Amino acid sequence: MAVVIHESGVAAEPFGAGARRQHLLTGAQVRGTPVLLDRWTLEPGARAEFDVPAPGLAWFQVLEGEAVLAHAAGEERLTRAHIVFLPPRFRGALASRAGAVLLHAEVSDAGRFDPAFAKNPPRLRIVDWTREPVLASQHDARKRVYVVTPKLFGTRAIKGEMIIYPPGTEASNHHHEGAEHFMYVTAGCGTAWANEKPFPVKKGDLIYYGDRERHYLRSEGGEDMVFVEFFVPGEYQTIWAQGAPVCTWLPTGRDIQGRNPVREIAAHSSALVESPHDV
């Protein structure tokens, strides 16, 4: 059965000066998982130092507020539009003048999921996801924005995307083979199913689906349900339930604010095992 953990039920521990972190996904919640997922809170004036162990990688997204990432090559000012990919052995510090909340993921042994990782390790990269192309579902009003892909970050060890469900929309029943799958709800609420058993989900929920566990979601209430989901490794197979339509994503030619995006992605099917080259 799916594991559901709400951030309000996870104790926060000190993490630097004026910073706290909550361990939402660990080996204690899901035995043997190579993925750690934290929620970091920076109070006004906070500063927290961190490093990425080798051969791991890390990723974080600013959920609220603004922060400054300081590292050996300089400083980066980050807002809610930014997603940051951290390579092995990266050392840095996060500070916030007015406060910030971040979602942080770490893959402890990324080399086992990407044969090219050791020879061609990825580097620090910062992406403004609001400038990335939006893809629209062929079947309904759902939208997708890729946030972690081989093209963006140079590794196939992890893949991530932001999915937007307008009220009343839902996906087809399906399962994945060959990857761990988890998601974090950043807005809205709805109902999720795991092996045809429903349960409610809402903002602040972490949902972890086991390998081959059938699942889908439906948005409910008066606002969009938004979540970010991740797969480790980033290449896997999606199997659709008998008679269920396969999700096909079509280019809109726009970013999330209706502007011309920084790049283009062609139409593709979620049934593909490998990420398309333009993703």
Key features?
globular; Jelly Rolls; single chain; 10-stranded antiparallel beta sheet; 24 strands; 279 residues; mainly beta
Structural description of this entry:
The chain is mainly beta and 279 residues long. It is 1% helix and 51% strand. It is built from one helix and 24 strands. The strands form four sheets. Strands 2, 3, 4, 5, 6, 7, 8, 9, 10 and 11 form a ten-stranded antiparallel β-sheet that branches. Strands 1-19-16-21-14-13-12-23-24 form a nine-stranded antiparallel β-sheet. A three-stranded antiparallel β-sheet has the order 18-17-20, with no helix packed on it.
What does the secondary structure layout of this molecule look like, with pairings?
Blueprint: E1 3-6, E2 13-14, E3 17-25, E4 35-51, E5 57-65, E6 67-71, E7 74-78, E8 82-86, E9 91-96, E10 100-107, E11 125-128, E12 135-137, E13 143-148, H1 150-153, E14 159-165, E15 174-177, E16 180-187, E17 189-194, E18 197-202, E19 205-209, E20 215-220, E21 225-232, E22 237-240, E23 248-251, E24 268-269
Order of helices and strands: EEEEEEEEEEEEEHEEEEEEEEEEE
- End-to-end Cα distance, whole Å, is 31 Å
Our Rg estimate from Cα atoms comes to 18 Å
Looking at CATH, which topology of the largest domain would you report?
A: Jelly Rolls
Number of helices: 1
Low-confidence stretches: none
Structural class: mainly beta
The gross shape turns out to be globular
Oligomer: single chain
The CATH superfamily of the largest domain is Jelly Rolls
Kindly provide the name of the CATH class of the largest domain: Mainly Beta
Helix content: under 10%
Strand content: over 45%
Largest sheet: 10 strands, antiparallel
| Corresponding CATH architecture of the largest domain | Sandwich
